[in-house]
């Protein structure tokens, strides 16, 4: 069965409809998420060419290179332009071609940073108007990876996408395979990563805002739990050539407990995120280094199917609470499970093979230490510490390799989507006084919960809304509004905002419906709710999409 499972690896992705069409016909540059190191989180603008070279030497010496960490990436602050407008390194980077040669000679790949605007986030020269020349310069230096950070505002997400596409085309035209890793969230575009699939203009995209060295945050930058609560809902758009980048690893930087570091690494692996370390490899502590080199978790991240684990169970994540169960198919037919406890106290969590449609029993192996915890078992239950995650690889004879496709199979029939669904729902605006839009119990709502306090910076995003055929469809919104009439802004895929009026009936213990015409693209979509007109939007219970093909 293992050979049969591997044989359908390509079919799994194609059958999902989850990977956006590329802007060109080139084969994906990334079949699996990249692994490497980036200078920014530890050194910021103080990094130098000599430092980058010493980091590469340390990664070779401590085993990180051989564990798979191959991209060594320079971040912002390296650049200037000469009298002819060509990019060149400043005094901290006197020979970037030489740096590329140094890294390549030691078995690494060379990554660099730029921005689509006039300026980078740190105020250095951006690539606007220089895309072709800059791409040729990167190729001449032997660059293998470009981090392209959108540091200015855009009139629309489609305008921002056009800027990314311009550099992608310029990179492809050089003939050198240079990975384009984009960040659409910087500048005034906070939250852009979750409302649009960026696979048409990049090889991977930052899904959330910047990571910080902390578990949870109600202000910039994000904590680990913030990122998990958002990125875990985006599995529908991930696959070879279009990975969700959950940002750099903070492992070894000292802000997380050992339990939190284990969760950080395990969830990034389950979510098929790039594994880009940021701690100084010369001084990282032994426990953190061993985690960074854990071969079992790396194998989950680097599995050749390149699929992101899906949320198959859990409670809604509010601030740093809640729990999730993720399941991820592996190319040899095994299934990886993660039991994530985002709360501040221990919880007993469980899952089963039946939860993902796999019959029979299997062998459950702990992915932190390689110990077999159960043999011939159909399920597992374990106490997971606060902020902890249990991770298992399950080998089950005869497991159908198509379980993941069947589990997430999208059809053209009518679908209902609950606002509180932990597999789809993101609430944004968490750094406002009321911590963003919130989930609350609702006895009259279809799923027993609703999302309220939507307005201002507080938004609700519902991901993975399927349409077989592109078109404009009458989407029914079920809501609660016991006050007067309220407005909401509704977007699809981050664009096409509509102002919609929702009648108030004076009863907070009843639901109402209204129908909105929404433009959906073929495949998966994100439908967002906000209120740009003052006051609060209605509380949202669910949306219903009619047949789409």
Automatic annotation (TrEMBL):
Domain of life: Bacteria
Stored Pfam families: Melibiase_2, Melibiase_C
Keywords tagged on the record: Disulfide bond, Glycosidase, Hydrolase, Signal
GO molecular function: alpha-galactosidase activity; carbohydrate binding
Record-linked InterPro entries: Aldolase_TIM, CBM6, Galactose-bd-like_sf, GH, Glyco_hydro_27, Glyco_hydro_b, Melibiase_C
KW Cell inner membrane (keyword) present: no
Residue ranges constituting the CBM6 domain according to the UniProt record: 415-546
Biological process annotations from GO: carbohydrate metabolic process
Cleaved signal peptide residues: 1-23
PROSITE patterns: CBM6 (PS51175)
CDD domains, sorted: CBM35_galactosidase-like (cd04081), GH27 (cd14792)
Catalyzed chemical reaction(s): Hydrolysis of terminal, non-reducing alpha-D-galactose residues in alpha-D-galactosides, including galactose oligosaccharides, galactomannans and galactolipids
EC code(s) of this entry: 3.2.1.22
PANTHER family, A to Z: ALPHA-GALACTOSIDASE MEL1 (PTHR11452:SF75), ALPHA-GALACTOSIDASE/ALPHA-N-ACETYLGALACTOSAMINIDASE (PTHR11452)
Family label: Belongs to the glycosyl hydrolase 27 family.
Protein name: Alpha-galactosidase
């Amino acid at each position: 069965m293992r050979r049969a499972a591997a044989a359908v690896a390509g079919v799994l992705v194609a059958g999902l409809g989850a990977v956006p069409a590329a802007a060109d016909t080139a084969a994906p540059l990334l079949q699996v998420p990249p692994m490497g190191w980036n200078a920014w989180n530890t050194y910021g603008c103080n990094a130098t060419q000599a430092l980058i070279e010493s980091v590469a030497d340390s990664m070779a010496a401590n085993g990180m290179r051989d564990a798979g960490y191959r991209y060594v990436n320079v971040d912002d602050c390296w650049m200037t332009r000469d009298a002819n407008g060509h990019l060149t390194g400043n005094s901290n980077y006197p020979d970037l071609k030489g740096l590329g040669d140094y890294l390549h000679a030691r078995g690494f790949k060379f990554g660099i940073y730029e921005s689509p605007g006039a300026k980078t986030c740190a105020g250095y020269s951006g690539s606007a108007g220089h895309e072709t020349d800059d791409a040729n310069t990167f190729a001449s230096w032997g660059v293998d990876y470009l981090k392209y950070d959108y540091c200015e505002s855009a009139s629309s997400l489609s305008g921002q996408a056009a800027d990314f596409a311009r550099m992608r085309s310029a990179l492809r035209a050089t003939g050198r395979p240079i990975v384009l890793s984009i960040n659409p969230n910087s500048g005034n575009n906070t939250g852009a990563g979750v409302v649009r699939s960026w696979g048409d203009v990049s090889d991977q995209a930052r899904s959330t805002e910047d990571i910080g060295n902390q578990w949870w945050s109600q202000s910039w930058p994000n904590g680990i739990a913030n990122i998990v609560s958002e990125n875990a809902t985006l599995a529908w758009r991930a696959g070879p050539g279009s990975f969700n980048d959950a940002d750099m690893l903070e492992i070894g930087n000292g802000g997380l407990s050992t339990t939190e570091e284990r969760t950080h690494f395990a969830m990034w692996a389950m979510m098929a995120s790039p594994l880009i370390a940021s701690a100084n490899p010369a001084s990282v502590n032994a426990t953190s280094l061993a985690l960074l080199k854990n071969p079992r978790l790396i194998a989950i991240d680097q599995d050749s199917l390149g699929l992101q684990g899906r949320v198959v169970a859990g409670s809604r994540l509010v601030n740093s609470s809640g729990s999730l169960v993720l399941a991820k198919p592996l190319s040899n037919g095994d299934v990886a499970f993660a039991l994530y406890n985002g709360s501040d106290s221990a919880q007993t969590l469980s899952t089963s093979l039946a939860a993902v449609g796999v019959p029979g029993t299997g062998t459950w192996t702990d992915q932190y230490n390689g110990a077999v915890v159960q043999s011939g078992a159909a399920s597992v239950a374990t106490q997971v510490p606060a902020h902890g995650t249990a991770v298992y690889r399950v080998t089950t004879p005869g497991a159908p390799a198509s379980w993941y496709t069947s589990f997430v199979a999208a059809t053209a029939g009518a679908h209902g989507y609950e606002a509180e669904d932990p597999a789809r729902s993101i609430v944004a605006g968490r750094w406002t006084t009321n911590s963003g839009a919130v989930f609350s119990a609702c006895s009259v709502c279809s799923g027993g919960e609703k999302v309220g306090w939507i307005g201002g910076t507080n938004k609700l995003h519902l991901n993975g809304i399927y349409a077989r055929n592109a078109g404009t469809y009458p989407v029914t919104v079920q809501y609660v509004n016991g006050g007067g009439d309220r407005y909401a802004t509704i977007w699809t895929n981050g664009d096409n905002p509509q102002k919609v009026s929702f009648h108030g009936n004076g009863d907070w213990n009843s639901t109402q419906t209204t129908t909105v015409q929404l433009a959906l693209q073929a495949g998966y979509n994100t439908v967002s709710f906000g209120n740009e007109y003052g006051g609060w939007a209605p509380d949202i219970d669910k949306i219903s999409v009619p047949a789409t093909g």
